[in-house]
Task: inverse folding
């Protein structure tokens, strides 16, 4: 049982939950995730470990409410418990030792970028973050990222920071030169676009893939992604891969496998809520 | 069978009598009792258990068929060494409590093995009543059916837990709560060791729960056997992934001995084009969604694609489980695609028979070449090629060779790949001192001791994909070695 210690709304549909998970807090490294099952009968869903507090024995999870299971999770209150939290899963981020890294976060993907930026800055790497959202209230973790270095904020509507997509800002930073690695996490089209921006510059680009998972230990193979033409498992070989080698078409397509089911489940849930 | 006249009943009628008092000739005259089954049409739409179990009268008759051999070969055929004549003779005498006591002394999971063991190649395969005489094959005693009967009786009627053994002061970690791990835990706790089982999932049972479908092994049976172990003092830690949450060397430091029984793990895919299309599953994923996550239940929150035309590639028990599941999820056409012929099917005869009864089709001598999809990348078919059998290969089975020009597309919307598993490196990769063979399975000596002192292993992570009962046999044998190892440790 994992008690929820804190709950905070980061954006209109992004919530941060701080939950008890002392062992995971102790051994987790940046880039790793957990699989959470809210209670009996619930789905198992992968969530990035955004931060840990080893002394308090807690981990922070950032959840975007998009389907029934995530709505159910963010519907929990402080003091409630989550039945199952399994992890830490996945390979930790392969952190460069020195130089200049650009961390690009789109929407809730910024939550995945934050622990990476934190670890890089702690080891003396120069960090520039480029984060984006639809408008001002969708930009998350800006204050936290500012502790790691320069932050460029982009909004689609220009209501905050620069108007435009993160890719434009990333392109500019790359043009200035001296970028050793780019970490880009967000919706699939954004990660694909970022990888295309960096390709001509020959800058190593790492993306974190959110494919559909069940066990998180390599057992089901459902999270398989095509990397440079070969199947790899996001849960044990990833979740981070070389963005220049990922078959994004196949990834975004496989993510739609259960769309119909998800839409129905969400509609039923929302109908129940109204009733 | 013609040797056994259907009409002959035990002369003792329905009375429980010590077997010795019934003349052998009379016992020989009783024919093997059939397992009552749910009707094939009805059951192919439900996940309710297919086999319904014996009632008291049928069980009595079946028990009276046992000849109480002086040299009970059946016991030698049992990987966990159940004293079969002892429990069966008690059934015949009407002493079910005694039967349960004898059965459970040797077998931690009798409700499970009574349902899923391939008895025909083990205990029952050794029964002299199954021997072939004058060209006619007899029918062995229904040992598995009786085991199930006694286990189910005990689940209702035996509530007491054996007196706990005095504490040995030794701590053992068991990695994995599948058949090998649970069996070992049950044996070790009987010796007074403090046993903690680490399970990666949120629920115990391993393959018994994620792999074997409800209609063959109701999850309630597994849970009741696990509950009994917990009452005996076994602790289970869920969501504990060894190799991630803890490493094997860490466990070794905290426990006096470790038993690694994590199963085989990784699915093998066909390595043909189109395998990442939507609608292609590994059997592991397909069955886990349905069994562990309950996707078959009306209120199941985990989705599974319920295809109308499902092709399952492979011919083993897992393939049969998958294809029978597909029928129950509503597939109009559920077909096994197998590259060899019927004679080479590795699945149990009973599973194949049940699948056929339920309307499953078999495409023998057929090998997939690629998965075909539409513009939205949904599966629309499986392109296959016909095969014919050539010379025997290394396994002694005739090698399938392609028939040129025989390519065709089998229309389907779902493909389930059930062609085997490989060793999962998650645990072993965090234990550099653990010797592995070239396929990644853990190397052990005859007693299950690995290259790491105090670390033992058994089940599929040692032998490769095998059966529940062989894994349980390992759990039992290796737990004996662990006990001897612990007794030999210096007193701290």
Result:
């Amino acid at each position: 049982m994992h008690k929820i210690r804190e709950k905070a709304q980061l954006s209109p549909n992004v919530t941060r939950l701080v939950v008890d998970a002392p062992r995971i807090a102790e051994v987790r490294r940046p880039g790793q995730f957990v699989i959470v099952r809210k209670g009996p009968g619930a789905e198992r869903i992968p969530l990035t470990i955004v931060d840990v507090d080893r002394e308090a024995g807690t981990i922070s999870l950032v959840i975007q409410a998009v389907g029934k299971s995530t709505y159910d999770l963010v519907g929990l209150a402080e003091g409630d418990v989550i039945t199952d939290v399994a992890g830490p899963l996945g390979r930790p981020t392969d952190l460069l030792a020195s130089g200049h890294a650009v961390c690009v976060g789109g929407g809730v993907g910024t939550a995945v970028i934050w622990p990476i930026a934190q670890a890089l800055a702690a080891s003396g790497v120069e960090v520039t973050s480029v984060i984006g959202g639809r408008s001002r209230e969708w930009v998350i973790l800006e204050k936290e990222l500012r502790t790691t270095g320069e932050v460029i904020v982009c909004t689609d509507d220009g209501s905050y920071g620069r108007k435009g997509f993160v890719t434009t800002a990333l392109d500019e930073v790359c043009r200035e030169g001296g970028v050793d690695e780019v970490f880009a996490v967000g919706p699939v089209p954004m990660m694909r676009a970022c990888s295309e921006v960096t390709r001509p510059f020959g800058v190593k680009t790492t993306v974190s893939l959110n494919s559909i998972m069940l066990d998180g230990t390599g057992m089901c193979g459902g999270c398989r992604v095509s990397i440079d033409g070969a199947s790899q498992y996001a849960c044990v070989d990833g979740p981070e891969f070389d963005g220049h080698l990922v078959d994004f078409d196949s990834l975004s397509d496989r993510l739609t496998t259960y769309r119909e089911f998800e839409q129905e489940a969400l509609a039923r849930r929302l109908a129940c809520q109204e009733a | 069978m013609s040797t056994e006249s259907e009409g002959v009943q035990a002369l003792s009628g329905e009375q429980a009598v010590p077997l010795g008092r019934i003349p052998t000739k009379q016992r020989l005259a009783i024919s093997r009792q059939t397992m009552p089954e749910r009707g094939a049409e009805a059951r192919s739409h439900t996940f309710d258990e297919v086999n319904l179990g014996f009632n008291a009268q049928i069980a009595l008759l079946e028990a009276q068929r046992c000849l109480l051999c002086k040299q009970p070969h059946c016991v030698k055929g049992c990987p966990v060494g159940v004293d079969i004549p002892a429990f069966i003779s008690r059934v015949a005498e009407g002493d079910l409590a005694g039967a349960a006591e004898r059965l459970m002394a040797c077998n931690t999971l009798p409700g499970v093995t009574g349902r899923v063991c391939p008895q025909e190649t083990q205990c029952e395969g050794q029964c002299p009543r199954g021997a072939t005489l004058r060209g006619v094959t007899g029918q062995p005693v229904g040992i598995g059916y009786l085991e199930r009967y006694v286990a189910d009786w005990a689940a209702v009627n035996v509530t007491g837990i054996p007196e706990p053994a005095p504490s040995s002061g030794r701590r053992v970690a068991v990695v994995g709560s599948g058949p090998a791990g649970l069996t070992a835990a049950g044996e070790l706790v009987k010796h007074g060791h403090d046993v903690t089982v680490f399970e990666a999932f949120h629920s115990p049972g391993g393959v018994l729960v994620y792999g074997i479908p409800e209609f063959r092994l109701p999850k309630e049976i597994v849970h009741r056997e696990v509950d009994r172990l917990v009452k005996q003092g076994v602790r289970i830690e869920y969501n504990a992934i060894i190799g991630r949450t803890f490493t094997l060397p860490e466990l070794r430091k905290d426990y006096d001995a470790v038993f690694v029984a994590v199963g085989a793990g990784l699915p093998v895919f066909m390595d043909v084009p189109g395998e990442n299309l939507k609608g292609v599953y590994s059997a592991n994923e397909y069955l886990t969604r349905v069994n562990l996550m309950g996707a078959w239940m009306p209120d199941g929150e985990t989705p599974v694609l319920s295809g109308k035309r499902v092709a399952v590639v492979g011919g083993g028990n897992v393939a049969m489980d998958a294809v029978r599941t597909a029928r129950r999820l509503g597939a109009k056409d559920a077909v096994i695609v197998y590259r060899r012929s019927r004679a080479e099917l590795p699945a149990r005869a009973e599973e194949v028979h049940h699948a056929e009864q339920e309307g499953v089709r078999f495409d023998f001598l057929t090998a997939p070449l690629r998965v075909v999809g539409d513009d939205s990348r949904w599966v629309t078919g499986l392109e296959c090629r016909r095969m014919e059998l050539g010379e025997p290969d290394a396994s002694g089975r005739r090698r399938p060779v392609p028939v040129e020009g025989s390519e065709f597309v089998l229309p389907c919307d779902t493909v389930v790949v059930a062609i085997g598993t490989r060793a999962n490196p998650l645990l072993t990769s965090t234990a550099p001192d653990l010797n592995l063979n070239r396929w990644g399975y853990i190397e052990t000596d005859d007693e299950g001791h690995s290259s790491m002192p105090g670390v033992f292993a058994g089940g599929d992570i040692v032998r490769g994909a095998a059966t529940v009962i062989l894994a349980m046999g390992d759990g039992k044998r290796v737990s004996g070695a662990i006990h001897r190892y612990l007794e030999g440790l210096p007193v701290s």
